[in-house]
Amino acid sequence: MSEESGRKNLRMPDDNEVFAVVTQHNGGNHVQLRCMDGKERMGRIPGRMKYRVWINEGDVVLVEPWDWQDEKGTIEWRYSDQDADQLRREGHIE
């Protein structure tokens, strides 16, 4: 992190990933997502994240949509509040 700008190099989406905002927690390891490509998806929290990273409503996440079922996807990354603010300032998310 450079001291003068306060900007961090954040993990950006790969070709098959998209930014999303968690709109609802459906219990278990499923959440409702509003993706930046304009679609609503059911997101699955994988086991490697389930107990290490708490995902709440309003969190900004990185989702990999399933290629066989586009209305669902796997959450790959969760951004902290500061990182999400930086993404909003830079215009990556609404």
From TrEMBL:
Superkingdom of the organism of origin: Archaea
Keywords on record: Initiation factor, Protein biosynthesis
Annotated signal peptide: none
Domain S1-like, chain residue ranges per copy: 6-80
SMART domains: eIF1a
Keyword Endoplasmic reticulum carried by entry: no
Record's keyword annotation contains Protein biosynthesis: yes
Name of one Pfam family that matches: eIF-1a
Family: Belongs to the eIF-1A family.
Purpose of the protein: Seems to be required for maximal rate of protein biosynthesis. Enhances ribosome dissociation into subunits and stabilizes the binding of the initiator Met-tRNA(I) to 40 S ribosomal subunits.
PANTHER family cross-referenced by the UniProt entry: EIF-1A
HAMAP family, alphabetized: aIF_1A
Entry protein name: Translation initiation factor 1A
Species per Swiss-Prot/TrEMBL record: Halococcus dombrowskii
Name of the encoding gene: eif1A
